[in-house]
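Structure request: Methyltransferase, Streptomyces ficellus.
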Amino acid sequence: METATARAAMADRGLIVHLAFGSMAAQTLRAAVRLGVFDLIGDGRRPAAEVAADAGAEHQPMTRLLRALAGLGLMEEHEPDAFSVTPAGALLVSGRPDSLTSFVRMFTDPAIVRAWDGLESSVRTGEIAFDAVFGTDFFSHLGRHPELSADFNAAMSQASEETAAVLPHAYDFGRFTSVTDVGGGDGSVLAGILAAHPPLTGVVHDTQDGLAQAPKTLDRSGVADRCSLAPGDFFRSVPGGSDLYLIKSVLHDWSDDQAATILGHCRAVLPPGGRVLIVEPVLPEVVGTGASAHAADGGITYLSDLNMLVNLGGRERTRKDFEEVCHRAGLSLLTATPLPEAAPFSLIECAAR
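Returned structure:
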C-alpha cells in the first residue's frame, strides 16, 4: 500500500523532472507559435492532417506536436488526431487583444535563451552573460535587429495588458495634471490611464525605436490629442513639465547605479507635491513570505530576476532595495501596495526627500 511518504517522494521527483523538461516545453510553445497552429485551428476542431497541410508540415510530426500541446494544457484531443484549442491555448491566437504570441516569440528567442547557458558563469562572476555571447549589450543588439526589436516592443506591450487594465483604477491619478511615462514604449499603459482620466495629459518618453508603435496605440485609444512623444535617453535626462512620473518595468532592467540615475533625473524635474510611481514586483525579504501575490506566480519573479542577471545586468528588488535606490536618487519611498489583480506587480509611490 502506498504511504504518504512514498507519495511525497514521487511528487518531489515529479517536480524535478518537470523543471528539467522546462526548456523543452518552452521550445514546443515556440514551434507551435511560429507554425501558427493556434491560428490554424481557431475556434473549431480540426484533424492534425489538415493543420499540417496548412502549416507546410508533415502529418505525423504535427500530430506529435499537437499531442504535446494537449499534454501541456493548450490543446484538447477529442478523438484520435482531432484537436481543438483550450482557453489557455486561445491566448496564443494572434490578433486577439489579449494575445501573448509576441511575448512567447520574444522570450523563447535565441536572443534571450542563449545567454542562459552562461548562468553559472554569471552567478560566479556577476557578469552579464549576454554581452559575452553576443559581443554587445541587449538593447544595442535589439537596435541592430529591427525585426527582433519589433518583437520585443510587442512582447512588452502584451506583457503590460493586464497591468494597463488594472492600473488606472488602482491609484489616485485624478490629483495630478500630467503624467510622463518614463520608458513607456508603445504607450499602452499611459493610454489606459488617460482614457480613464479625461482631464489628464501625458508624455511618453523612450528611445526613438521604443516609441515606434506609440502613435498607433495612442490614436487607437483615442488619447493622441492629450499625449505627446518625447524621444530621448533617460540616462541623460527626462522631460520636465509633469507632476507625476510613471516608471513601469524599467528599473529591473538595470543595476542599482543605473536605476538611481534614472530616478535621479525624475527627481531633478519633480515639482513640489509631485510624485514618482514605480510599477514593478516587490520581492518579500524571505522567499515564501510576504504578499500572497508573489507566492501565486509560481516562482516566475525569481526566474525573471535571474533573466535580468544573465541578459541585462538588472535585478528584481525587495522593498528595502527600492528604499535604498530611491534614497540615492533623492526620493523617499512612501508606500508599496501590491496589485493582486496584476500580480506580481506593486505600486511604489515616492516623493522628493
